[in-house]
Amino acid sequence: MTTRRVLIALLIIGLALRLLYGLSLDPSAPYADAGGDSGWYLLNGYALVYGDLPDGSTDVSRLAPPPVYLVILGVAQGLFAPETAVIVVRGLQALLSTALIYFLYRLARLISRSQRAALIAGAITALSPALIIESGGIFSETVYLCFTAAGLWLYGETLRVGNQRAWLIGAGVLLGLATLTRAPLLLFPVGLAIHLVLVYGWRDGLRRSVLLLASYALIVSTWTVYNLERWDRFVIAGEGFAAFLFIGADGWDSPEAVDERLGVVDDADRQTQFLDAAATSITADPFAYARRRLSELGESVLQPHNTVVLGGASLRTLIVEWISADRSLTGLISIAQSDAFAPKLALYVVHFATIILGVIGMVRMRSRWRFSLPLIGLIAYVLLLHLLLLALPRYIFPTVIAWYPLAGCAFAKVNSIHVEASEGKRRSLSSV
């Protein structure tokens, strides 16, 4: 079977799995979860597009997250009945998650120059239980992952073909849309600008960096301009940094408890209060803060995303209890009979296997650093960011954009890996 046919098969399988899962879910459930993230997204998405609700349950002039996903939800709810809107959004997310299979396939191929590595990366993405589950949730991750991966792919293509200004601008636009979907990506393109200087040198690298950052800033600034014009409010992408810094320093239990600890007096000056409270908490016991941050980040990296969605007792907790107190065959069988054991086990296997294979892929692709470094940089950026801010498995999950292609590269043929090293003697950096 040709590579093209295998890729098409992976895309069809990936789309079918995502549609089967998403359409099996209750479309009314997100509305019933009024106090959860899904209900909040739906309510405020509608309000952002059509205006605040008359009952006072929304105030879009103070939205913390960026607007792209909210606009998608608002438009869908305006065009369709509530439950139909959720079905439409889940269908759209299934398509975007399927597109992600293609983008990560292309990234693995760019890095390794190996069809086998690229197809393995595509297969991991297509069959990833975390991505399948994510595509059915009313959360912004699927849209964010798609935009980010598409931007990184276009960026990588500019490195391969050389002087392609339109593609570099396109990469900036896509990364801008990703940032307007989830704000934590905000400073990552600065790292790509540094990467361009490393690859092309100061003169050519700076020129390309300006082009990338200008197109990126133009897209991100649209939300800033809109907020200034409509509400006289200055915001760049989102407004959650101060809150996540405080929660990362002081811990999280509930919004009400956080407000009580913070001692909120003036909602208009809330961000300053968060920063002051975070500084007070950190300076009171820096060592306790460092332990908290390292522990929370480590747990978030080791815990696969979306196990909580499956419900039931924690598989990790059950195994730890079995190792420490039971160790019997009967106890092991009872774990295997626990709620959602098979899908949870699949989440753990894929999670740890891709991290291990991804590290192997990094090492094997060291001669192709021009192409692999942006993905390694994305992993480092997310980890460093959440070393400072609140860390949850959901926030670390976007690193799969890097882990899956790098895991595929672990299977690249040796002669493919060293192609660039030999070709580098025959061509200049400007044609990389």
Task: From the structure above, extract its key features.
disordered C terminus, globular, 432 residues, mainly alpha, single chain, 23 helices, 0% strand
Structure explained in plain terms:
It is a single chain. By secondary structure, this protein is mostly helical. 74% of the residues lie in helices and 0% in strands. The chain is built from 23 helices and no strands. Helix 8 packs antiparallel against helix 9 (165-179), helix 9 packs parallel to helix 11 and helix 19 (369-388) packs antiparallel against helix 21 (400-409). The protein is globular, with a radius of gyration of 23 Å. The model is unreliable at 418-432 (pLDDT under 50).
Write the layout of secondary structure elements.
Elements: H1 3-24, H2 29-32, H3 37-50, H4 68-79, H5 82-112, H6 115-127, H7 129-135, H8 141-161, H9 165-179, H10 188-200, H11 202-231, H12 241-250, H13 255-262, H14 270-284, H15 286-302, H16 315-326, H17 329-336, H18 341-364, H19 369-388, H20 393-396, H21 400-409, H22 414-417, H23 419-423
